[in-house]
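[09:14] KT: can someone run the structure on this one? pasting the chain below
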Amino acid sequence: MVTDHARIRFDDAVSAVTARADNMLGARAAGWSDEQCLAWEGLLEVAKVMRRDAEVHLEDAYGISISMLGILGRLTTAPDGALRLTDLADSMGLSISRISRIIDALEQRDLVHRAACPTDARATHVVLQSEGRRQAKDAQGALEAFARDAFLARLTQGELATLAGVFGRLIDSARGDAET
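[09:31] RB: done, structure tokens below
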């Protein structure tokens, strides 16, 4: 049962989110319904808050960022725990310079090291160290628990199915748009 106080907080939150949509989209948002504004701006807000909170959780517990964990996680599943630097950048959607800075930080902590690619002298491999594998496993477990508590536990099975269907369709559409 929703109390009047909870309804007011929800209405205030909706107003704040739709106001942000007006600010971001300008006069064009004037023709948008509150539901459209909330859907668009809510998506952006939830993604921002969840990522920020997950980042804080990982930084506090393990001293690593989401991007660092993304790299370590990819290396744990790679053959021989090694991937080309360019492949890491491509798979994460980050620039080579950004990936290089993250790799520098991981190297300083002895979680990875760079090595010459055995099949292409022009390429550099990033190789997972045993401590990097351990940290990745621990941090992945902590992030999974965080996501379960902060996200999955707050959704009904029907809401989860709806979100999965909507996001699956939007991701597929965005990939199709990128290919054309």
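[09:33] KT: thanks! The CA atoms of residues 70 and 133 lie 12 Å apart.
[09:34] RB: yep, looked fine to me
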